Amino acid sequence: MNGRETGRTTTVPEVRVSGSEPPGKGLTDELNAACAAVEGAGGSVPLVLRLGGAEPDPAEFASVGVHLVNKWEQALRRVERLGAVTVAVVEGPCTGTALELLVCCDHRIGSPETTFRAPVVESTPWPGMVLHRLVTQLGVARARGLVLFAPRIDAARAVELGLLDEVSEDVAAALVDVLVRCGDVAGSEVAVRRQLLLDATSTSFEEALGVHLAACDRTLRHERGQTPAEPFPQW
């Protein structure tokens, strides 16, 4: 895990995942350490994930047991539910574990040369939870085209599908811009709204209403200067 100094002399945790790494213990431990650093800062700093640049090594993936895959999936879920903003910066080919992390992030920046492909082991699409996330984020029709035959798509197509939020010739400058924009956003509030978004596809209006009202009440009490409620227990 590395760190980036911001203009406010705050160290922003960074993790680099090229996509060649299998979902093993070393990568999982590094990701968990970065999440712990962000949580230790009370969500006041974002987590930056630098993704892409290499293709997976089938031989390394073959040596991974399902118990390690389970630990990796838990780490991905931790990123997805982190009480802080998560930003992905993607350069080069993005597949394998890099793509699995990409779809867990709040904001995604890519260079024009970036390409994307669903994770593949040998010639078989990887059946991890990345499939579930692609469906919930993009819809079944769009995810089907990416998952069943794993075509390689360019950055422009990734923006159309919703895999990327922006493409920039200068990803470093784009990252700084995002960090500045999210600098005054409370990580706990981002986590609340993110969870509402994630739950929207699987929750009925009637079931969601109470949770949304509770979130509104939390925001209104904060505006009145009262202490915000604790995050909802189910989150």
What does this structure look like?
The chain is globular. The protein has one domain: 2-enoyl-CoA Hydratase, Chain A, domain 1 (Alpha-Beta Complex). It has helices at residues 25-40, 58-62, 66-80, 96-102, 130-138, 140-147, 155-161, 171-181, 187-200, 205-223, and strands at residues 2-5, 11-17, 47-51, 86-90, 93-94, 107-110, 115-116, 120-121, 124-125, 153-154, 166-167. Helix 1 (25-40) runs parallel beside helix 3, helix 5 (130-138) packs across helix 6 and helix 9 runs antiparallel to helix 10. The longest helix has 19 residues, at 205-223. The chain is α/β, with parallel strands linked by helices and 235 residues long.
Which overall shape is indicated by the principal axes computed on the Cα atoms?
A: globular
Number of helices: 10
Structural class: alpha/beta
Distance between the termini: 26 Å
Strands, helices and their partners?
Elements lengths: L1 E4 L5 E7 L7 H16 L6 E5 L6 H5 L3 H15 L5 E5 L2 E2 L1 H7 L4 E4 L4 E2 L3 E2 L2 E2 L4 H9 L1 H8 L5 E2 H7 L4 E2 L3 H11 L5 H14 L4 H19 L12
Parallel strand pairs: 2-3, 3-4, 4-6, 5-7, 6-11
Antiparallel strand pairs: 1-2, 7-10, 8-9
Helix pairs in contact: 1-3, 5-6, 9-10
From the structure above, extract its key features:
2-enoyl-CoA Hydratase, Chain A, domain 1, six-stranded mixed beta sheet, 235 residues
